[in-house]
Amino acid sequence: KMILAMSHGTLPATLHVDAPSPHVDWAAGAIELLTESRPWEDNGRPRRAGVSSFGVSGTNAHIILEQAPDLDDAVAEGSAEPAVPATVLPIVPVLVSGHDEEALQAQAGRMSETGGDVLGLAAGSARRASLAHRAVVLAAGTDDLRAGLEALRGEVSVPNVVRGVVGEGRLAVVFT
Q1: Given 90, 114, 152, 155, which is the most exposed site by the fewest CB atoms within 10 A?
Q2: Rounded CA gap, 55 and 60, in Å?
């Protein structure tokens, strides 16, 4: 709701409030309940809002949201692409899997032939099916990626590659 309010530049009315709480001294400060929606004025700075959640079991959570930059303002002159800085990640996980060890090695070989787009390969590998024989290559760049994929093809152990086989077991989901 708050993200939509930022996007539309409208402060929404407070819902389900017939009368303000008597436990708050409303006259002491510059705070009020919004009884009806009103425009959220643009003051030249990003809009920010705090959102709190209070759970029945005593769990409390709070987040501060900030308006995203307007991509129309970020478009470089004469270019159709936004002038947004490229994301540089220190290490990217590239997932490899196959029905058996031979299929995993073949997949590593095909992936090594695709070129040096580490981010693209990592994103694509995350969308593929996870088969029984699995590995992950932790790549800080194309050299790490190539070395890791070659290690998988030759069944060589290197520090930036973790491999394994799916075992029997039950799934446990824990909400701490």
Answers
A1: 90
A2: 6
Q: Which residue has the tokens 């997932």?
A: 95
Query: Do residues 103 and 135 lie in contact, with contact meaning Cβ atoms separated by under 8 Å?
Result: no
Query: Could you read off the pLDDT of 60-91 as tens digits, one per residue?
Result: 999 999 998 876 655 544 555 555 566 667 89
Assessment of whether the complete model's pTM goes beyond 0.70: no
Between residues 155 and 78, which one has the greater pLDDT? 155
Residue showing tokens 């520090």: 159
**138-152 pLDDT tens trace:** 999 889 999 999 999
Quickly list DSSP for 68-126.
Answer: PP-HHHHBPTT-SSB-PPPP--S-EEEEEEESSHHHHHHHHHHHHTS-S-HHHHHHHHH
Sign of CA dihedral 123, 84, 72, 48: positive
